[in-house]
Design brief:
215 residues; alpha/beta; 5-stranded parallel β-sheet; globular
Length: 215
């Protein structure tokens, strides 16, 4: 439930709440597919497949098939392992931060994510942190792209979230690691702050709140 008397903080998931390791993922995929992606730019066929996968428009098997275009003999389980190697850790202090914030703010997640990654994170949370109710424990609402069929930075996703929350755009602060996602949010009327990858959200949240008048 959303409390209409509170402002809302919406977090991106990757590189804000959970660490991501793109280099590790690239290396793992290169090894499995026997390719050289040293430019660290994925082929367009893979980018297109990932965007569709993030919107829930294709399933796990179809994503794997897109990777197998580069190595038909690649084992699906090896591809999944490489794909999931993107996902890193959530330090305990970030859970503490969410616990502190939820008394004063509505908290949400808005993430471009997919079935394999969310399942991997769910297993990680239970195994590493013994947390089986992450979304319900810390958040009023979560918006995962593969479940709502929309993806940042498309305007429709910001409209959908705003309407679902029944919130005024000016009452929303969005924190994301990508400039284009924050630019789109601000254009829609939200407050937004870019959280640089590698920086620690617990050290910057106070600044984000004070700069936007949320504190």
């Amino acid at each position: 439930m959303i409390d209409a008397n509170k402002n809302t903080i919406i977090f991106d998931f990757g590189n804000v709440l959970i660490d991501l390791d793109f280099e590790r993922c690239f290396q793992a995929l290169e090894n499995v597919l026997n390719v050289d992606w040293s430019s660290r730019k994925l082929p367009q066929i893979i980018i297109d497949a990932i965007h569709k996968y993030d919107r829930g428009q294709i399933n796990d098997e179809e994503l794997i098939a897109a990777f197998q275009n580069f190595n038909p003999n690649a084992n699906p389980n090896d591809i999944i392992y490489a794909w999931n190697s993107l996902i890193g850790e959530i330090p305990n202090e970030r859970f503490d931060l969410l616990n502190e914030l939820k008394d004063d703010f509505n908290l949400c997640i808005l993430s471009n994510i997919n079935n394999l990654h969310i399942n991997f994170i769910t297993d990680y949370l239970e195994t590493k942190h013994t947390i089986t109710d992450f979304e319900d424990r810390f958040f009023n609402k979560v918006f995962y792209s593969h479940l709502i069929g929309k993806r940042k930075p498309d305007e429709e996703i910001y409209k959908y979230v705003t309407e679902t929350l029944s919130a005024e755009p000016s009452q929303i602060l969005f924190i994301d690691d990508m400039d284009e996602n924050i630019e789109a949010a601000i254009n829609f009327g939200w407050n937004g702050r870019v959280h640089k990858p590698g920086s620690e959200i617990t050290e910057h949240i106070g600044t984000y709140l004070s700069e936007t008048g949320f504190k």
